[in-house]
């Protein structure tokens, strides 16, 4: 499945930053909201331009995307939780029962992601043609990839690049 919206990427990235002191939280909260708003507006303009939508056609699309935001966040948080469990240094000593629990959780999370994708796609098809929806997914995927590339440490490859390869390489979607 395609990557989720830029906000999910930023949300996950911000979740792993060190905890700021309370005064910083208030200042960063406003800055984060402003950044999220700017990113949403930029993505909306890109979608509108690339798909040839009017403002009236864009509004229901944005409403649908917003309606799935909470579900998308929940799935992303569940994926992060599974990844955390898989990175546990004591995993090699885990019992078979614990390993089965992890495997079952991986399946539950993937099923939840697939269900979300199906529901979202059905809703989006009420405002977009199938061709527009495929193009929309490509735009969303490219947008998310650009954000990820910007978040990567800069290396010999230049802005967003990593040592050992050009930006965007090796970043295929992984289930966990």
Please characterize this protein's 3D structure.
The chain has six helices and no strands. It has helices at 6-15, 22-51, 55-67, 69-86, 96-124, 130-151. The longest helix has 30 residues, at 22-51. Residues 1-21 and 161-172 have low confidence and may be disordered.
Could you give a short description of this structure?
Helices cover 69% and strands 0% of the residues. The protein contains six helices and no strands.
List the helices and strands and how they pair.
Elements: H1 6-15, H2 22-51, H3 55-67, H4 69-86, H5 96-124, H6 130-151
Helix pairs in contact: 1-6, 2-6, 4-5
Mean of pLDDT: 80
Query: How would you describe the shape?
Result: globular
User: Helical proportion?
Assistant: 55-70%
Question: Count the helices. How many?
Answer: 6
- Tell me the strand percentage band: under 5%
Query: What characterizes the major β-sheet?
Result: none
| Poorly predicted segments | 1-21, 161-172
The helix/strand order is HHHHHH
**How many β strands by DSSP?**
0
Oligomer state of the chains in this structure: single chain
What integer value in Å does the Rg equal? Answer: 18 Å
| Alpha-beta classification | mainly alpha
Q: Measure the end-to-end span.
A: 12 Å
């Amino acid at each position: 499945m395609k990557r989720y919206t830029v906000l999910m990427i930023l949300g996950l990235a911000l979740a792993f930053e060190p905890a700021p002191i309370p005064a910083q939280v208030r200042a960063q909260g406003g800055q984060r909201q402003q950044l999220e708003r700017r990113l949403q507006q930029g993505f909306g303009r890109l979608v509108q331009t690339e798909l040839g939508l009017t403002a009236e056609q864009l509004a229901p699309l944005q409403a649908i995307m917003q309606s799935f935001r909470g579900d998308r966040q929940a799935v992303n948080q569940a994926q992060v939780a599974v990844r955390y469990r898989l990175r546990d240094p004591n995993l090699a000593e885990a019992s078979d029962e614990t390993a089965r629990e992890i495997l079952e959780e991986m399946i539950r999370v993937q099923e939840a992601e697939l269900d979300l994708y199906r529901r979202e796609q059905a809703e989006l098809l009420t405002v977009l043609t199938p061709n527009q929806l495929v193009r929309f997914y490509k735009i969303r995927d490219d947008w998310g990839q650009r954000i990820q590339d910007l978040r990567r440490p800069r290396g010999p490859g230049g802005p967003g690049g990593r040592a050992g390869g050009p930006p965007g390489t090796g970043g295929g979607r992984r289930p966990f």
